[in-house]
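1st attempt posting a full record on here, be nice pls
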Amino acid sequence: MEIDRTVAVDIEPTITAQLQQLASTEQIIILYACESGSRAWGFPSPDSDYDVRFIYLRPLAWYLSIDDRPDTIDLPVNSLLDINGWDLRKALKLFKGSNSAIYEWIQSPIVYRAHSNLTQKLLNLADNYYSCRAGIHHYLNMTIGCYREHLQSDTVKLKKYFYALRPILAAKWIVTHRTFPPMVLSKLMELISDRQEIVTEIDRLLTIKKTANEATTIAAVPLLNEFIRSEIESCELAVKLIPKVDTNSTPLDLLFKQYALNSD
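the predicted structure (as tokens):
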């Protein structure tokens, strides 16, 4: 397991045990498990929960039925752990459709289990499948919803700034580089290295968040609000010029068969 400073050492055995028990109970192979929330994004609070996401594989016979079968596994959520996963076939379908979550998972800096080199194979295919248009729309919708619903008052929840800043920087990354964005906020902030006043303000909020709880509120920051609003407008104009992407399922079909045929 790759240990990150945002993962408490005493939680590692708990997460590992949960995944091992799940694999045994469900008779699955967990191909990959990672952190997907604020701890992976780079701005956790001390009381942030652990958002564990995984990709799993069933025995071959499971995939040979004509009946639709469950393709997700969700464990009961508690204040510490939120664990759920997708069947490999579902994950590959969503990868083909440019689902942003799966593109983030395969980049996570916090990996709990890596049974194979699945993530590297997907990263090698990513530029052939990722729709920049779909990605921008996804991150724009996240930003706009958070901005309108949570950042218009004089006092706002601290974490809501990060829930707007990360996706708008992700959308900006796609516009700038025409590829899927990195997961971690610090990498996304390279886009605005020439906007020192914005970087300084974000760094100030990051420092507060390291010791603040999830419910902490702060005075609204007009500078950041204007930055977010301006970038929303810019990305909304840019996305209109980006074409849709047509993709071929064959490489992903082959990848699925490679794993499914060796699952027993």
